[in-house]
């Protein structure tokens, strides 16, 4: 973005301690207090100007700190995570957070949260954090942080601009939530409720897959060849001409390949492990058992797969690979995993158990129609995520130009 060209002639150097007071009102037993909401460190999101989530105090017996609407909560432990946000409700919070209250004689309400999310403040906080295992910031050190403060009339103008960027970002987050809700509803309506034929027409039932009228099919009846376990070989630094060696740790929770830390297979005999377009991988062991990947040769490099993964090749006249991919994002697949996973030192699901998976049976045309609808919603979700990222980057850039 271009420079804001702010005239800082009338701005004065102040310390943070001149503009905010640390409030330390102890709540001995939050579950028996008047407070219903508890903000733990897990409720902080780096870069968020406002706290958006909280926990109930119902079962919270350990002491906490009280806060009021308009206070700023600053996570003093692990300052490198950059967590400082305003609250618009009352409650109590972790003892590992400062409760800071603005001095309204010197700043307008809601101005300091932006100061406290500037890069220069976080650099200062991290430089002054102390400790060995988990570094913490002390208020007496943070209070000495100095910066240029504009007069109140300019504070109001800048705050209006900055809160507008926050409102825009929150509107995108709301839209994202709506799209995710539509995605989940459409996905699970078909994958959980299934369908049955009535007078030649496809009907969606609310009875679930236990209804005998519903058409179902097992995964073993949808494959074109025997499932195959991956290569048991070590990895090495990947050269440009070599195939990528896909391991469980290279697949994220959304079923996408992680672009960083690419390696290759340390053997010249890997032809039988080369992946083809539409190949489907299931993780068979470890804490991430059940993780999946649909190989798409149009967006993925030439690849081979590792031994803790199982490759399935589908019969394209019975099931589209993308349909299986979407099924593994449904609640029905989660229920299958919970039922099948064998626990122990290493949780696992073997090839035969994966083949026993029961899926709703649709014609190839019906599968394609559902895939098209889910693809459209997925694309909208990715577009909104991109807008949220750009909106946050814009807000951060404005904050750092000002402070």
Write up this protein.
- The chain has 403 residues and is of the alpha+beta class.
- The chain folds into 3 domains: 138 residues, Adenine-n6-DNA-methyltransferase TaqI, Chain A, domain 2 (Alpha-Beta Complex), CATH 3.90.220; 93 residues, Orthogonal Bundle (Helix Hairpins), CATH 1.10.287; 145 residues, Adenine-n6-DNA-methyltransferase TaqI, Chain A, domain 2, CATH 3.90.220.
- It is 30% helix and 19% strand.
- Strands 3-6-9-4-5 form a 5-stranded mixed β-sheet, with no helix packed on it. Strands 2-10-7-8 form a 4-stranded antiparallel β-sheet.
- A hairpin with an 8-residue loop joins strand 7 and strand 8.
- Helix 5 runs antiparallel to helix 9.
- It is elongated, with a radius of gyration of 27 Å.
- About 2% of the residues have low confidence.
CATH level 1 class label of the largest domain: Alpha Beta
User: CATH-wise, what's the superfamily of the largest domain?
Assistant: DNA methylase specificity domains
In total, the number of domains comes to: 3
Mean pLDDT: 89
> Which class best fits the helix and strand makeup?
alpha+beta
């Amino acid at each position: 973005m271009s420079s804001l060209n702010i005239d800082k002639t009338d701005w004065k150097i102040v310390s943070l301690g001149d503009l905010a007071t640390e409030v330390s009102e102890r709540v001995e037993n939050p579950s028996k207090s008047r407070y219903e909401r508890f903000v733990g460190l897990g409720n902080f999101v780096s870069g968020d100007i406002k706290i958006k989530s909280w926990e109930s105090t119902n079962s919270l017996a350990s002491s906490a700190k009280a806060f009021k609407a308009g206070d700023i909560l600053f996570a003093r432990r692990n300052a490198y995570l950059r967590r400082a946000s305003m609250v618009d409700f009352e409650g109590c919070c972790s003892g590992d957070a400062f409760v800071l209250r603005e001095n309204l004689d010197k700043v307008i309400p809601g101005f300091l949260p932006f100061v406290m999310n500037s890069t220069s403040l976080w650099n200062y906080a991290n430089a002054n954090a102390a400790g060995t295992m988990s570094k913490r910031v002390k208020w007496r050190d943070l209070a000495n942080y100095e910066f240029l403060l504009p007069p109140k009339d300019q504070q109001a103008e800048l705050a209006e601009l900055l809160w507008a960027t926050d409102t825009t970002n929150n509107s995108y987050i709301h839209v994202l939530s709506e799209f995710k809700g539509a995605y989940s509803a459409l996905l699970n309506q078909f994958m959980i409720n299934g369908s049955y034929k009535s007078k030649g027409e496809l009907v969606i039932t609310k009875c679930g897959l236990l209804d005998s009228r519903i058409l179902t099919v097992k995964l073993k009846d949808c494959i074109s060849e025997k499932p195959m376990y991956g290569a048991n070989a070590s990895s090495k630094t990947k050269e440009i001409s070599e195939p990528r060696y896909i391991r469980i740790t290279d697949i994220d929770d959304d079923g996408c390949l992680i672009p960083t830390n690419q390696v290759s297979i340390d053997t010249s005999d890997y032809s039988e492990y080369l992946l083809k377009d539409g190949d489907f991988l299931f993780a068979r062991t470890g804490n991430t058992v059940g993780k999946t990947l649909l190989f798409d040769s149009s967006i993925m490099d030439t690849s081979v797969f590792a031994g803790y993964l199982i490759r399935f090749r589908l019969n394209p006249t019975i099931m589209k690979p993308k349909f299986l991919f979407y099924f593994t994002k449904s609640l029905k697949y989660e229920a299958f995993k919970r039922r099948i996973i064998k626990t122990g030192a290493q949780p696992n699901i073997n090839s035969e158990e994966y083949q026993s998976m029961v899926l709703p049976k649709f014609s190839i045309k019906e599968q394609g129609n559902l895939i098209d609808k889910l693809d459209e919603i997925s694309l909208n979700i990715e577009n909104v995520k991109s807008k949220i990222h750009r909106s946050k980057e814009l807000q951060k850039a404005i904050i750092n130009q000002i402070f």
